Amino acid sequence: MVSKGFRKDFLWGGATAANQLEGAYNEDGKGLTIADISPGGKLRLPLLFSGDFPLEIDREKYTYPNHQGVDYYHRYKEDIALFAEMGFKTFRMSISWARIFPNGNDQEPNEAGLAFYDAVIDELLKYKIEPTITISHYETPLHLVKEYGGWKNKELIGFFEKYARTILERFGKKVTYWMTFNEINTGIMGSFFSTAMRNATETENYQALHNQFVASSLATKIAKEVNPTIKMGCMSIYATMYAYDSNPETVMAMEEKNCMFNYFCNDIQVRGEYPSYALAYFEKNKIEIERTDEELAIIKAYPVDYLSFSYYMSTTVSIDPKHQDDKIQGNFFDGVRNPFLTSSEWGWEIDPVGLRIALCDLYGRYGVPLYVSENGLGAIDTPDEQFVIQDDYRIDYLAKHIAEMKKAVVLDGVDLIAYTPWGCIDLVSASTGEMSKRYGFIYVDLDDEGNGDMSRYKKKSFNWYKSVIASNGEEL
What we know:
By secondary structure, the protein is of the alpha/beta class. Helices cover 39% and strands 14% of the residues. Helix 13 (352-366) runs parallel beside helix 14 (392-410). The mean pLDDT is 95.
């Protein structure tokens, strides 16, 4: 039966990550993570992909905005009260592995870190806000990079298993919704954030991903043992892909890219096995990874319960050489310019219909509940003297995307359970380490140079999103 609208228990909320939000990077026993030594500024991503930066803090050469974040570590009660005022049903957050195990492989967990997340979860539940917890969101402990080389090393599977067991046993009776690895498919491109490796080969990238697939399934196994009602999800970037023209060779190039970027990780985590196209790709490119029968059995036995994904933009594929000089760039992928779309201030193409296409595609392929875990517009917000921000551009972006989500539910029969737009409160950008690229409904008084008192102010979009939630998506 086709729905007349979003389900009554639809989880409206917002999404954040510990390393971009919390600050307090070295307080209460927390160890360093890969985020803590990642330089800030517009050169952050090029540096991370080049591997040309030290695995240590170098304040003479770089800045590190995430060290203070927006001080959520000390202000979480104030921020959660604002989320509650908007009517949040869920709040997607992450736990910093290094707050629990400072080195990633310590014998005993850090009780201060566990106590902090206990307090945060209890504060959310006080307002009847369901936490959605990402176990690993671009925050591998730095020690595991220096001593083990990151996720290409199978030793990390056991370390992650212990970490997952610790937090699931501590919080699993209070928290229903979990995700394992954030945007796991960025590891295909050699993302330092994802697999904690520098200058890796393609084989090492896929080995690291395989190790994460095993770790994800082990986390799912533990979750079901701790509390059978837990819902464990995977999380990836989805970029709706278009062929620039109807040349069959163009369409084939698009399909190949689509399979390895949009489907590969989801196929394994939802369906529980390596797809044939990936095995053919490995053979063609002489990629040999170590996969034991036991590991494959674990992946098969413990798939995820739901599929979550971030959606910010679509991408267009062309094999015509004349198009290659006119490209748009996202965080982890690029494409040729789509003449039918406009772009954000950061050059990301805006495509609300692409979200409906994504939902139909993923639900048709997998048939499991879907969770839009990130979506939003990064923009420069300019407050007046009273810190009033008229962010109609953000309202327009989100309203159009929510409208397309509703079409997917009502007209296409998609089982959509949640929507948590990215950065419900302004935080440090993952890709650039900037504060000026803002996503939130709540403005934080902090600039790229660290100036400001970090006071919180409601943007125009705050009350707009409040009415969206109150009407269950009927008032846009």
